[in-house]
Design goal:
- This protein is of the alpha/beta class.
- The chain has a single domain, classed as Alpha/Beta hydrolase fold, catalytic domain (Rossmann fold), CATH 3.40.50.
- Helices cover 32% and strands 21% of the residues.
- The strands form 2 sheets. The chain has an 11-stranded mixed β-sheet, with helices on both faces. Strands 1-2 form a two-stranded antiparallel ribbon.
- The chain is globular, with a radius of gyration of 20 Å.
């Protein structure tokens, strides 16, 4: 009897130790409390100290709010796949004299904090699209705000998003490019940014894709990306751990929320930065191959234990008529194309 009891206790202890330290947080990550001082990466994967109670640069915020032209809108097409053309809001000639084609879809890419037009997400996603189909790719460079301290950048995201929405409304008025042919893709802070752009347009854009939306300062933020920001809104979660190390929001924010490999740690990654950045790497791969498929889950436990058995939905891709709702777990490999 003692032997049986000892075996049971050992087995129980082993089972408990095998439980992931960071379970999926979609049911309770809203309650996550970040400490005042955290570390958050720039677009090159370097960690920076962030004071979440740092003073906001109000002068910069006011200028960003007043003037959407502070941001760069850089057009790439199959006629100019690597050399951009600059589009300027309220300057019709900058659009009509460019390679912009209103008869093909338009994809907008928005980077995250401490990033710019040259940050890896932009060329990787751009090239995946241009190899697959004839599209207008517009890279939004919002570095003027993005290079400020994190709290100022986060506070300015809604204004930059509204500015992007106003820019796209101007493009529509000049060229007739329909909103239902527009797909807005944003990473980290950029995920909330494109959500606000879609909201500015009344949720009329075909798709909004939020790539591991930033967590710090966004848990209860009414300006975060939400399901009403586009006809179809999708979130890809890759670093949403409940511990303070998680960089992503880790909770449901979209029509369809994909928790990749459980939504916390990714194959081949040893750091939160790698987990976080894999969101845009996975997305770019799905644009090329449309091969990562999720199963719908009824609870966060199913996501954690990889026991989701509901309906299947392809994650990411470039389909402008895509639709789905609910939580999904999608599994990947550790090497491209995952």
């Amino acid at each position: 009897m003692k032997t049986v009891l000892l075996w049971f206790l050992v087995a129980t202890a082993y089972t408990v130790s095998a439980v992931p330290v960071n379970t999926v947080v979609s049911d309770y990550s809203e309650d996550r409390v970040y400490p005042r001082f955290i570390k958050f990466p720039d677009g090159e994967g370097n960690l920076h100290d962030v004071d979440l109670e740092a003073p906001v640069d109000q002068e910069l915020l006011d200028d960003v709010t007043r003037n959407p032209a502070n941001n760069l809108y850089l057009l790439y097409t199959r006629r100019n796949p690597t050399s951009s053309q600059t589009l300027v809001i309220n300057n019709a000639g900058s659009i009509t004299n460019s390679n912009f084609n209103p008869r093909v879809p338009t994809v907008v890419i928005a980077h995250g904090w401490l990033s710019n037009q040259d940050t890896d997400i932009n060329p990787v996603v751009r090239d995946a699209y241009l190899r697959r189909e004839d599209v207008n790719v517009i890279v939004l460079d919002w570095r003027r705000l993005a290079i400020s301290n994190y709290i100022t950048a986060a506070n300015g995201v809604p204004a930059v998003g509204r500015g992007l929405g106003q820019f796209l409304a101007f493009v529509n008025s000049v060229t007739g490019a329909p909103f239902n042919q527009m797909h807005l893709v944003g990473f980290s802070l950029g995920a909330h940014l494109v959500g606000n752009a879609g909201r500015e347009l009344g949720g009329r854009v075909a798709r909004v894709t939020a790539l591991d939306p930033a967590g710090p300062l966004w848990n209860y933020n009414s300006d975060r990306v939400n399901p009403n920001d586009g006809t179809y809104v999708e979130a890809i979660h890759t670093d949403g751990g409940y511990t303070v190390g998680g960089l992503g929001i880790g909770s449901d924010v979209a029509n369809a929320d994909f928790y990749v490999n459980g939504g916390i740690s990714q194959p081949g990654c040893l750091t939160n930065i790698c987990n976080h950045n894999n969101a845009w790497r996975y997305f770019a791969a799905t644009v090329s191959y449309d091969h990562i498929v999720g199963n719908q889950c009824s609870s966060s436990w199913q996501i954690t234990w990889d026991s989701c058995s509901g309906s299947r939905l392809n994650m990411g891709n470039s389909n402008l008529r895509k639709w789905g709702s609910g939580r999904f777990r999608a599994n990947t490999g550790r090497r491209y194309p995952y």
